[in-house]
Every structure is written in structure tokens, then in C-alpha cells.
Amino acid sequence: MNKKVITQLSYDVLGCAINVHKEVGPGLLESVYQKCLTYELRSKGFEVIEKVKAPLFYKNLKLEVELRADIIVNESIIVELKTVDCLLAVHEAQLLTYMRLLKIPQGLLMNFYSDNLSKNTIPMVNEYFRALPE
Predict the structure, then answer these.
(1) Pfam families recorded for this chain (predicted)?
(2) From 11, 31, 71, 101, which residue has the greatest number of CB atoms within 10 Å?
């Protein structure tokens, strides 16, 4: 996998999310958007995993905590879904932490509680993305 492939995948995922948003509109629960987006992505041939548990290690201690990333696409992008008035720094921190714990190079933070989903989506990358070949 390289940066170009993951970047294209990111555009494809956003396109699927926009289709969902156009079809059902804003104001529903995150779980509804998750099911619809998962269906849309799978219908396009993407590999999708939902509600992935993220292991958390503190020094030599493995903690049994329920950190759950909403959707992982092709083992390369985490999609974190929100339905909030506005995205906050804590939402970005949550996604970055999931990306680090699961060693996923890119994330998309999407707020479906909006009129324009593309303007309310924040793409994020980390050190795993920067290490990929061009």
C-alpha cells in the first residue's frame, strides 16, 4: 500500500459517505449512518470491519478497555462517525489515538449532523502514513 492508493481510498470513502448523507439526511443516530455507510462501502467492494476493539497497553499491563473504532476500510482508513453540533478537538484526539493504537495510517472524522458532509469531514494522517512509499 502506498500514499497514492490510500489517498484515493479516502476520496472513495468520502464519496460513499456523501451518498449516504444525501439519501438519509442529517439528524439520525451514529449507528444508523454506520450501518448505511458499511452497506455502501461493501456494495462497492471494499473490505469493512465495524466496531473494532483497540487494545491498550500501559507499560507491561494490557488493559481490558472498550475502545471501539467505528469503521475500518481495507485495513487502511479508520472512519469515525459523529452526529454533533460541531466537531471538537477531543473528537480529533480520539481518532488519532485509535489510529495509533491500531497502526492505521489515515483517518476520516465525519460529522453527519450537517448540511454539507464534505465540509464537516476532517482527514487525518499519522506517522504510519508518512512512512509509506509515494
Answers:
(1) PDDEXK_3 (PF13366)
(2) 71
